[in-house]
Amino acid sequence: MAYEIPVTQARAELAELINRVVYGGERVVVTRHGKPLVALVSAADLEKLEADRQQAEEQVASSLSSVHHMTPVAPAEHRRFGIAAEHRGPHLGD
Questions:
Q1: Tens-place pLDDT, residues 8-20
Q2: N or C: at which end does the chain have fewer Cβ atoms within 10 angstroms?
Q3: Long-range contacts of 4-9 (CB under 8 A, 24+ apart)
Q4: The domain 1-63: what is its CATH number?
Q5: pLDDT at 84 > cutoff 80
């Protein structure tokens, strides 16, 4: 659970908020008019979030790649469904 604080109060308490995040392991959400604006997280949490995002992107790319290779479409199907072009991947030497 994150601690929420208005941006005006966060300005005045920035040093304390940084200590809460770094040493207390808290996450702080800075709000404006009651809506989340930014979040303060530790550098370690940020690294984990970025690694998780990269892993998820790689899984999606891998899934899309395997689906593309598993489902060839015959030229007759292209005409049947009105497909005018097909991406065939990079052409080396062009």
A1: 999 999 999 999 9
A2: C
A3: 4/28, 4/29, 4/30, 4/31, 4/36, 5/29, 5/30, 5/31, 6/30, 6/31, 6/32, 7/31, 7/32, 7/37
A4: 3.40.1620.10
A5: no
